[in-house]
Amino acid sequence: MYILDVTNRDGVQTSRICLSKLEKTMINFYLNQMGVAQSEFGFPVTHHETNYLNANLELAEKGVLKPICLSGWMRATRDDVRASFKQVPKLKHINLSISTSDQMIVHKFKGKLDHASVIKEMEEAVTLAKKHGAELIGVNAEDASRTRMDYLIEFSSAAKDAGAHRIRYCDTLGCDNPFVMYDRIKILAESVKLPMEIHCHNDLGMVVANSIAGAKAALDAGVDSYINTCVNGMGERAGNADLVSVILALKYAHGFEGKDVLDEHIDLKAAWKICKYASYAFGVPIPINQPGVGANAFAHESGIHADGALKDRKNYELYDFEELGRGEPEIIETGRKITAGEYSGIKGFRNVYEKLEVEFKDDAQATEVLELVRYANVHSQKPLVDDELKFIAKHPEIARKIFTMAP
Description:
By secondary structure, the chain is α/β, with parallel strands linked by helices. 44% of the residues lie in helices and 11% in strands.
């Protein structure tokens, strides 16, 4: 089972929140450190994403964002495919999405498409993407959980014949339960024999259970599975499957422990950093009871629990806090602190970088990076974290592209 994180696509579609292009880049950076197989890093058809997407693909070429796979999301239309590859010509990995349920075909398309033309539209998009050089094509059945199984098999088989490499089963409304999810994915995977992507929402509070059930069904059917996750469970409405919760479940839930079903590249020690960063970037606190990274995940107060945990942590803790990169004290300066912002001067700015042990060869280089840091602060409207400051100093030309938008 592999992790395909969609924080930079579905996560940023969450109402009332957003990420700057630098913050999206840092999410990709941390996901790569964590060993996540793929990041759905944005929308190639959207103009304000163009420079960010091209810059991140350049980072991949340089080996900075490697081996993570960076994939773009678009509608399964020829117009979207043409526009995407025109604006992001080095794009190699994509997901094409179209609705497949009777509800959406009738009440969303409103006569523009019927069941046959949905398949035809998808096939033409896949064919055109291959002509543009797409090397990995996933086809998304939006609202798959409310799609008739016979039609879902017909749609997915047509996608395979057209050249798609994966099928994404989207529980768009979060209305499946783990038992139904398992049965439907098992039937679909056995019929189509393509790797399955499991994309679930949390409207009924079952998103992690549904994701795990669907992924297991795919494995039991003899194909790989790719669980779509978001850092801290962000996502539209009630959110997507939480990245850390999914990984912990695949490592420690009964029936999985010791079976090595999870991608061996995953490094859970990076969990604490990416979750804390995403919380800061989104401006959304981590719930105290969040699995693994919540403030109470390893806290014990009641007498029986505290006594048992002190005698042997395994009495009341399923996994070690160190495994998630926790345990080091977090030090906050309470005295004088110089920060870098959109109105910083050169002396204070150089003081900030000296504390990060970053040296500039001359004032001209320092001034160039200062200007970029100012732009970064304008974009994010919050102080930059140390890793963001280091990234800008190390990759100024990439940063310049990320901060540049051409309406």
